[in-house]
Design goal:
Largest sheet: none
Helix content: over 70%
Shape: elongated
Radius of gyration: 16 Å
Oligomer: single chain
Number of helices: 6
Order of helices and strands: HHHHHH
Number of strands: 0
Distance between the termini: 27 Å
């Protein structure tokens, strides 16, 4: 829920700021700024909640904490890429693929009741997916329309 709130709040602020400074609306740029802010926020979680996020990675994958750190760094790089016009398109595609690839970790975490913030098995479980899966679809559509289909 927090990433969605951050995305929508920063999108609103970006629209207003761009209108004030450039005297025009730029919805795509505002959407990319909001996504970059949201990605930075979620990337911070990879460093604050490494143990819990590592628990969301299926057991057959090695180096779980390294994967969590890598994906956090990757989110920051994607956030930067979305804001550099030369890299917007490729960053958009990379983010789209990243969002699709991260969904199984969210499903795995929900099935196993993982609370990634506490690093425990008392999470919301499958009910979490009723919000998370549609939210992931929103992020994918948001990315597509703001950075790929300009």
């Amino acid at each position: 829920m927090k990433p969605l709130i951050i995305l929508l709040f920063s999108f609103t602020i970006s629209i207003v700021a761009i209108k004030v400074f450039k005297k025009e609306y730029n919805i795509a740029l505002s959407a990319r700024i909001a996504m970059a802010i949201m990605l930075t926020f979620t990337a911070i979680g990879h460093f604050m909640f490494t143990k819990g996020m590592a628990m969301m990675i299926p057991k057959f994958l090695p180096f779980k904490e390294s994967i969590v750190y890598f994906t956090g760094i990757f989110e920051i790089l994607l956030a930067i890429g979305l804001l550099i016009p030369r890299f917007t398109y490729i960053s958009g595609w990379a983010l789209l693929i990243f969002l699709v690839l991260m969904l199984p970790a969210n499903i795995y975490g929900a099935i196993h009741n993982i609370n990634f913030q506490k690093g425990t098995f008392d999470g919301n479980g499958l009910s979490y997916l009723w919000f998370r899966v549609p939210l992931q679809v929103v992020f994918i559509i948001w990315t597509y329309f703001s950075s790929i289909r300009l």
